[in-house]
Records
---
Amino acid sequence: MSQTISSFLSEHLYDKKAIGALNKKWLSYGALRELKKDVNKALRKNGIAKQDRVAIVLPNGPTMAAAFVTIAQCTTTAPLNPNYREDEFSFYLDDLKAKALVVNDGYDGPAAAAAERLDIKIIRLIESNQIAGLFSLVGDGDKDFIEDEKVCENDVALILHTSGTTSRPKIVPLLQSNIAASASNIAQSLSLSSADRCLNVMPLFHIHGLIAAVSASLSVGASIWCSSGFNALSFFSNLDEAKPTWYTAVPTMHQAILARSGRNSEIIKNNPLRFLRSSSASLPAQVMRDLEEIFSAPVIEAYGMTEATHQMCCNLLDKQKPSSVGKPAGPSVRIAHEADDVLIDGTGEVVISGNNVTPGYENNIDANEKSFFEINGNRWFRTGDQGAFDEDGFLYLTGRLKEIINRGGEKISPLEVDSILLDHPEINQVVTFALPHPKLGEEVAAAVVLANNSKCDDKDIKSFAKERMADFKVPRHVVILDEIPKGATGKMQRIGMAEKLGLL
């Protein structure tokens, strides 16, 4: 099995279509391999070694896909959400110890401002007007070019932050071998081949899009057609243009597609899909059934997380169980005791072990001690999810042991939101919690206690939050209280807070 991104890209025919997009010619596998050589040369000339970290802030589309794939073959990539505010960029760039930032030529937004403030090198990307994903990198570097700095399977290819139970996000390093293994696992579970084509609507700063859509497709010589991001209004025209065999999305996207399917029945009929894939949050059973009926294709629900380089379980192409996240699809998946480091039968914490699992959180001994344990030479990772297997070996998630809010696939640390809201001069106490939502799964909510004589209202608090955090983190529901309910031990308990406040 291929152990690096370069090794699985080297296996495909030169002229085979790799990356496509609207109104552009296809980028071939041969051209993608040549592009990697140019990228490697540009990075080395700018003093970027293979162990350095390069943050990427680019809009969704073919260039972002190609930038990730090529830069990750040369050094460590760190894709960041382009919608972050400057303070958020400053935190992530500093926390990553980024050596350089890659942005579009002419970009002067908050990421560039943060990089300049931190004295981080900015490398400009100039994209081709004709060929999808083709670009050149321009910096001010004049270092001697070193050709032979080969990236190996144990080198870090990708770094992402994941929300944790503390206000500080955890750094998840993913090795070349992690990405190669996960791409292979996904390709096998979906029976992907070079004849397949994926329509990508997922953001490419997120593990779902980077691995399930891009890496899995390219690992088997398939093609990927990259949209500029998900838009329910343009989805069906993209479907008609791309002519894919499948797409992958989160439940909220599927629901939006479903809502517009009736007026696009002809496009659906003329562009039959082999399957649809859903991940990152639970897909309602009725939505799955409706999608299968309308598209005349199976909907494959999968279960993934950043620490597993995305996929852990997946339903089968020939057998799907609504409300189940499927069978183990690559790594070993078991149930462990929620407190003791032992594997059990029945209901407990879902744990995984395999070559797609991160070697551990960076510089976080406490988190690693809590999240990993060894039994008989196997290293197991605690997912924080509660679940159980049925008699057929399908996994059902029954609860969440962690307080992380899952808003339509976006994972949000409630303590991160707490810390920002507490900067408001008229807020004395705050507890951020998950509020059930019919489409997103969970929405961000906050209960606050104001200072005496404060005339602040929920609109003021939301406006304050919008200026300091990405939109998806902003509480949509703010409850102002005289006192926040506490548990038996006197602690504010996030899990169950919505019920305590009568919001369900």
---
Amino acid sequence: MIEITGANLKLLSCLRVASMGEPVVLHESARKKMRESRDFILDMVDSGERVYGVTTGFGRLAEILVPEDDRENLQRNLIRSHSSGVGDPMSATQVRIIMLLRVNSLARGHSGCREKVADLLIEFLNIGVHPIVPRYGSVGASGDLAPLAHIGLALIGEGDVEYQGKIRPALEVMSEVGLLPLGLREKEGLALINGTQATTGLGILAFLESKDALDTAEVAGSMSLEALKGTPDPFMEEVQSARPHPGQIESASRLRRLLENSEIRESHRENDSRVQDPYCLRCMPQVHGATRNIMKYVADVLSVEANSTTDNPLVFIEAKSIVSAGNFHAQIVSQALDFLCIALTDLAAISERRIERMINPDVSGLPAFLATNPGLESGFMIVHVTAVDLLSEMRVLSHPASVDSVPTSAGQEDHVSMGLASARKLSRVVDCLQYILAIELLVAAEGIEHHRPMKAGRGVEKAYDVVRDYAESLSGDRTYSSDIEGLKEAVKNGRFSAILKHNEI
């Protein structure tokens, strides 16, 4: 059970709710804050105060006063008009994390809506009612308006939802599970759609997958080092202490652990004519470590954002004020996700270089393309081509969306973050990276076969065994797609990253 307070939601808790269905409950402290902010909104309205989005129109229409009798219609119209997203629907997991983050934001007590708004979102989560939310429609400023509006649409009993694997009208499902549509009151439509929760939610899911991918990159890199008979000397503690970036130190430590007790290393310790390894082997701590540093920054940004109020206007009880501001602007999240896209693409680039070296007989000391009978057989020739295609896709996706601001709302919203685009890109980048790492694992395991009966490092041998759960060693050409798909799922599910967490390593 996850208690929602608005202040202490962890990224892994988000995952447990989004993908594992862990139930959610609103903490009493959050209820108290929500009641107080709601009362303050009503007091301000009763006093005749002009309040954006409560007594006025929205965006460029904020100068227009809305008559008292139309204020509930105003909120309902907002939800309907802003439900303008297009494209394939987001996954149930993505919709669930967005709803969870929205509840957590409302729970902070700066949004001025009733508890029942948060309660209905929680009922949807706990019962498993998932609004249909199109993939496109947000520029990441004034909040993720369209995606959040589609969630709001379901809350008022309109639009479609997914329930028990079927897409059905929201009102029909709500009636079946015993829920009443939400009648929106002053500010509640605005409170539902002003926020960065779609950008942040998709960013969190992609980020958590990227963590496993980074650990897997070190597993794959250590396997490639063994296949190419490289040296672990550049990973010495002394080397890292001379340039003590935290990520570099951690990556080197992991590589050392994976390579412990390697018979392959001992076989070429003496009389090796090579003075130093290529960068793709020697510089793994520097490249992988840079990504680790960036991921720490991204984790911090996402953690803060998940526990923030990104509504507008904001209610501050102690200051006795309602302030129109810009917390809905997702620039910091958008930039962080773009930064991570770039870092993960570079991680894929160094992985691709290791793949190429293992299949290139001019530099590997191994059969061409690791084929059993080169010439008659092509071995991993086109497997490498697939990796290059994936890397090219990642490079295109690494163009930062956060610099692509286009003014909207008749110039009122004249600088936007394109945060949701950054999050979508990151999801695709992580997917491509998982495939490239799967290919490196496949190729490296085959390279190690050529050094048998010698054993690789303890961690490498564990990784080799996992690879063989999904792909047999080569005995001639075969179709490799299923091997790669299986290994990609193993990367995604953390089978390789788990090796680094094993007590024996």
---
Amino acid sequence: MAQEKRTAIQPTREQDYPEWYQQVIKAADLAENSPVRGCMVIKPWGYSLWENMQSALDKMFKATGHVNAYFPLFIPVSYLEKEAEHVEGFAKECAVVTHSRLQLGADGKLAPASPLDEPLIVRPTSETIIGEMYSRWVQSYRDLPILVNQWANVVRWEMRTRLFLRTAEFLWQEGHTAHATRAEAEEETQKMLRVYEEFAQDYMAMPVICGKKTEGEKFPGAVDTYCIEAMMQDRKALQAGTSHFLGQNFAKASGIKFLSESGSQEYAWTTSWGVSTRLIGGMVMTHSDDDGLVLPPRLAPAQVVILPVLHKEEERARVLEYCDALKAELSAQTYAGQPVRVEIDKRDLRGGEKVWSWVKKGVPVRVEVGPRDVAQDAVFVARRDDGSKKSVPRAEFAATIADTLKSIQDSLFARAKKYRDDNTVEISSKGDFYSFFTPQNAKKPEIHGGFAVAYYDGSREVEEALKNDLKVTVRCIPLEGGGKGKCIFTGKEGIKAVFAKSY
């Protein structure tokens, strides 16, 4: 009887996907739960990932004409009340500040002392406070467009949290723009959606579907919401980014008016768009395996790690000198327009322990160097994406490292896309739809389902029924490959949509 393979992560994806996800994050040392309920501490390796994401996205935003600014963390409750649909959408998630100052009570414990004249909301999103500022900045059509982005933290008081995917506090960027015409604002909304698509696919190696949200799923107060949707390895969907056309709703609520070229007073047209540290969770679930994290090279904090293999003290100096020289050679090479990021692990650990620590951290390329490799002027190379290992002449390895990293990046995208495509089905009947999303084990569902492409009539009734019956939602109306046909649930004329269970 064949012995079951022992994996670094327990349980495996098949055994318990949610717990596997948590254990991958723990093993990779990305983050941990904080003492504050629902919040997380992002550890250095995880934060480096976010910094690399932030750096790439920031360049892309600035290349499209946007600039960065910063707005207050606190929002007067009256500002949220100006836009009724918006406040209704976020009311249950708001953290509220009602007092200032602490003082010692009679029991010797600290207690709030001074009630505020008006409660303050810890920002769940910034449309209202930014709208207030834009109303001061905009007087004429000459003041438009305003193309501003903010890197910040936000708070949404979630009841059920999961590291990176859904936490009470998280990091994100939020773009907020104001325009003189509807056409300009709609163009902006689409442009930023495509920026997110490019980032997800080219940097994260995560294939996405671009689409439009239904009325029931759109951002509170928006006219239209667009999104990128990705499939995780449990076949659930992850909304990885959104771009909102806000029309004049927020401009009217905040009083963003301008004198047009014709001399009339008009309301501006606004947009907002954002991604968050949820992207890290998406990357974990897209690429990782039962041995831990797998990182796409373009975002990996270290793209190559060099592990000196030392058995005798007299070998140490020669091996370390060789590793230092190799690091210099690799760092002189460029991949994707940047110097190759290299680390040497000189920790005093057993070889196996050291190797597995980097496997679990997902470093794309692992290099082992021992006395024999030094003597042969070679390196022993392991790829994290496919597990291949081989000895390579040092000069050849250094000269081809950029090609190797590109190969890994491309292979991860191809693998993720194949997985998504293999688990996306066109469904033409209600019975087949329900069968597709019904697990065999209702008490502990196995990995099942995927993306279902089907026609539906666009009604809230159908959406609510699917949510209640199957926990399935309309992820988006795809921008490419859409069309009309008969709704598989009601028989009425319908539109093509992508359905899935989701995070």
